[in-house]
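Friendly challenge for the regulars: who can give me the structure tokens for this chain first? No prize, just bragging rights.
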Amino acid sequence: MVTIPASLRRLVIQRAENRCEYCGLSQLGQAATFHIDHVIPVVAGGLTAADNLALACVSCSLRKGARQNVEDSETGETVPIFNPRQQIWKEHFSWNCAEVFGLTATGRATVKALNLNRAIVLAIRAEEELRGRHPPP
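First reply, four minutes later:
Bragging rights claimed.
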């Protein structure tokens, strides 16, 4: 397990505005502490540096794991999983109320691989919308 210094952890959380950088879920009101994810996994040579770290909810972090590539179900093409350090979320995804839609092969494949529209997260996003915390800015 890689230890992430407290100052680096704070930087990642602040930069992400306390939201999962994959599914957009706010950490506010969640019981589980979000993970600091290595976008490029350590096992693949990813460094513990600000430009390779992202804030991820527990579900996204565990579903992503060490994967770097996923399959787009529409084209069957293997594509890189969404990289929040190199890509812009709104170029790959859009919101339809509580649901996330992939706009690109990377977006579609990431939605499926991380199961971004599972029932529990849809319910959480609906509740977050009532609290003014969804959709993310």
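The chain is about 30% helix and 15% strand. The chain has a mean pLDDT of 95. Your move, everyone else.
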